[in-house]
Amino acid sequence: MKLYTFKQAPNAQRVQVFIDEKNIEIERVEINVRDGEQFKEPFQSMNPFNCIPFLELHDGTIISETVSICRYLEELYPNPSLLGVSSENRALIDMWNRRLELDGFTPILHALRNKAPRFAGRVIPGTRNDLKQIPAVAERGLDIFKILLNRINSHLSTSQFVAGIEFSIADITGYFMMEMSEFFEIEIETSFPSVFRWHSLIKSRPSIPK
Ligand SMILES: N[C@@H](CCC(=O)N[C@@H](CS)C(=O)NCC(=O)O)C(=O)O
Questions:
Q1: What is the value of pTM for the model shown?
Q2: What Cα–Cα distance (Å) separates residue 191 from each residue in 54, 96, 174?
Q3: Cis omega before residue 53 (within 30°)?
């Protein structure tokens, strides 16, 4: 099994934290997506969506998509569980992870890609087209992200981790969502104190890259 990854990329880091929390070793191949290596062979044929991370199994099967890779690893290495042990627990973790991905991680990703100068010419991950950055997309992405921040701030005032009393994949998704939002310099500590408390708690884990 080989993981194709890029140390600095948020989705690659999500999988790496998942792996480190489980204390397992997986062979890694670094693909520099900033330099466009994902468009070269053999990577282009391995993952025609031109994104990392992706996992190659012994028979050549490729699993891309961060959460799908994590699901596969969870089944191979169930302990410690990061996707839940009971039906209820698994559903709640999945619910929170989806909320954070759909209403937080994705909107802030598009906000960042449509605003930060370093993403000019690379607005849509895994493409080489010349789409222009659109300030209104950045603005709306940030609006959607702030709605989520408000909601999780209330939730985290009574919940230690995103999906309850145990650390889970939802905390990993949430952590990298917050990292991506740093570009926008939102005042988290005073405006969203419970998010700040939770973010600091996750940051202190040894699996989080320093
Ligand atoms: N939906 C994919 C998205 C993966 C993705 O966007 N990866 C980024 C790095 S964080 C990438 O490979 N970008 C390539 C590029 O910018 O062209 C997943 O969840 O794994």
A1: 0.98
A2: 37, 21, 17
A3: yes
- Eight-class DSSP state of 132: P
- What's the half-sphere exposure (Cβ side, CA atoms, 13 Å) at 128? 12
Q: Is 179 in the pocket of ligand 1 (CB under 6 A)?
A: no
Residue ranges per domain, the chain? 2-76, 87-203
pLDDT tens digits for range 27-65: 999 999 999 999 999 999 999 999 999 999 999 999 999
Pocket probe mutation, ligand 1, options 13, 44, 52, max atoms within 8 Å of Cβ: 52
Q: What CATH code would you report for 87-203?
A: 1.20.1050.10
- Name the fold adopted by 2-76: Glutaredoxin (3.40.30)
- Atom 13 of ligand 1, residue of closest alpha carbon: 125
14 neighbors 173 (Cβ within 8 angstroms): yes
Distance CA 32, CA 163 (A): 33
